[in-house]
Amino acid sequence: MRAPRAGAYSTKTGKVSAGQFSGMAAGRGGSHRRSVMVAAHDICKPVMHSPILRSSSPRVLPLLAAAGLSLPAAAGSFQITVQNLAPANGTYLTPVWGGFHHGSVDLFDSGSAASPALERLAEDGNLVPLRADFAAAAPAGVDGVAGMAPIAPGASVSFTVTLDPLSADTRFFSYASMIIPSNDAFIGNGNPAAFQVFDLSGNQLLSSFMVSGASVWDAGTEMNDELPANTAFLGQAAPDTGVAQGGLVGLHGGFNMPGTGGILDNAMFSAANIAAGGYQVAQITITPVPEPEEWAVVGAAGLIGFALWRRRASRA
Ligand SMILES: [Ca+2]
Ligand SMILES: [Ca+2]
Q: pLDDT digits over 140-171, tens only?
C-alpha cells in the first residue's frame, strides 16, 4: 500500500467522473527518454497501406483518387479513433493517449522496470506524467487523448490533431491506455518505431491496427491480487493503492482464474478474459479529415466525373 496521490482514477462504485480524466489529460512538461527495444508484441497486427497518389494531400486522397485527381502534400487534420473491441462484460479502457513523434519516443521496454510515468498510467490511468515525458522527449511532437471517461466495450472515442505528413517530427505514432479493471495492466507500444504513419514523401503508410488480448502488458509495478480495494474500477478508492510488485514490464498473460475472487468473478466483467483465444482489446484508426475547401474540390471533382460519365454514356 502506498500513499494516495491526487489525479486518481478509481471509485468504489466503478464509475469515474469525466472531470477526473480531463484533468489527467492536460499536463505537459518534465523529462524522460530511454533506449529503443523492439518487441514483436508491440506491433499488434498493423494494417499497412501501399503508397497512394504521390505528392497528394492525404486529407482528400480517397475521394480524389476515385476522381482521378491529386493535390500537393499539405498539413491537415487527422482523426485518431479508438474502438473498444472487447465483448459485452469485457474490459474497459481508460482514456487512450496517442502521440505522433520522430520515432524515438520510448514509453517502456519489455524486461525493464516501468518509468514512474508508465506506472501512473498502468495503475491509475493517469496520463499527466506520460504526457509530460512525451513533451520533453518530442518537443515538436503532437499528441492527444481519446475519451474523457472509462471506454466501455463497443464504444468509440476519438481526437483530432493537425499533422504535416512531410514532417520528420510527427512521422511515428505511439499509444497507451490502462486496461480496467486491473491492478497494472495496460496497452501500448514499447517499440517507438512500430507504427510509422507516413513515408518520406508524406504518403500515409498506416491507417489502422488492432490490439489483441495477447498483447496486453503488465507494468510489473503492482501485484495482480485483483482484490477490489486494490483494483482500479472495482473498489479502489484512491490512486496508487495496491501491493508493490517491484517487477519488470512484461506480457500480462491474463486475469486470475474464476473462483479466486478476482476480476473474472465479477458479473460485470465475466467476459473479460483477455487470455481467451481471439480476444480483441481495441482498434485504432488514423484517418485524414477533409477541410471544408477540400470538400468543395471533391464536389467539383465529382461533378467533372459525372459530366465525363454522361458524355461517354451519350456516345454509347
Ligand atoms: Ca502487476
Ligand atoms: Ca491498484
A: 999 999 999 999 999 999 999 999 999 999 99
Share of the chain above pLDDT 90, in %: 68
- Name the CA radius of gyration of the chain, rounded: 21
Distance 256 CA to ligand 1 centre (A): 11
DSSP letters, 13-58, are: SS---HHHHHHHTT-------------GGGS--EEE----STT--T
d(CA 49, CA 8): 39
| Ligand with the closest atom to the CA of 236 | 2
Least confident of 29-33, 79-83, 237-241, 263-267: 29-33
User: What are 258's three cell numbers?
Assistant: 474464476
Distance 64 CA to ligand 2 centre (A): 50
30 vs 9: CA distance, rounded Å: 21
Distance CA 72, CA 145 (A): 29
Residue 73 in this model has a pLDDT that exceeds 90: no
Q: State in Å: Cα 244 to ligand 1 middle.
A: 8
Q: How far, in Å, from the CA of 30 to the mean position of ligand 1? A: 25
Show me where the domains of the chain are located: 28-300
Which architecture, in CATH terms, is 28-300? Sandwich (2.60)
Ligand 1: distance of its center to the CA of 123 in Å? 9
